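Recall that a protein's primary structure is simply its ordered list of amino acids. Everything else, from secondary elements to tertiary packing, is in principle encoded there. The following example makes that idea concrete.
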Amino acid sequence: MNAIKRIFVVGYPGAGKDFFARELAKKLGWKFIDENFDLEIKIGKSIYEILGDDGVKKFNIMQSNVLSSLKDLENIVVTTDASIASSEDILKILSSEFVVYLKASTETQLSRMARNQPPFLISDLKEFVKKLHHDRDAAYEKSATFSIDTNDSDLDKHVLKTIKIVHQKNDYFEQNPVEDILVIFHKTTHKPIELNKKQSECLILLASGKSSKEIANIMHLSSRTIEDHINKLMEILGCSSSKELIALYYDQP
């Protein structure tokens, strides 16, 4: 896959998008770009209620044009407006990009927004936020390269985790072969499982975004052998899919 040169941060108000994106850009030495308007949460209505159908079309075209133009830039971290989850066209633009979805519960959002005291014009903020979750959570999950639960408020940890993923996806391990074996904690029993060298390298490459065919080329093995390695990893680590394997790898202490 191509090296990551752009990171788009999606999610709701109160999830920590601004702090996360600024810190991530700072630590990567990249440029931070704010494309987050937060009209809905400030006015207390959905984007359709605020602008109407014609207005939303124009607003989404504007956002689409801006985000499309950003795809010509490199080394940028971009915050996006919460309303993009309701636009298939915008999500399609982001489908080929590295997208981080910051998740937060309704209670966490309300607590954080109360501390910041924004100019809300909403009579029932909790119900409004819950409705946004109901309408958009699935779209966010589908659009994200990976998701981060920010309810623990440890955004510094999540920034470092994201940097690790970026480096790995930028073919880091293709130029730096695995020298040591990995010890991974089982998904359900949490017992440490020592992998052999080939299993370790296979898991690292899988977590870096490589396909089975790409892993096979790098490790000079057949695609079938790689599939066998992945199936064995799922078996010994208690995972039911490669997606669970990747999540387990990044959740290691």
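The longest helix spans residues 47-70. Strands lie at 6-11, 31-35, 76-80, 98-103, 146-149, 183-185, 192-194.
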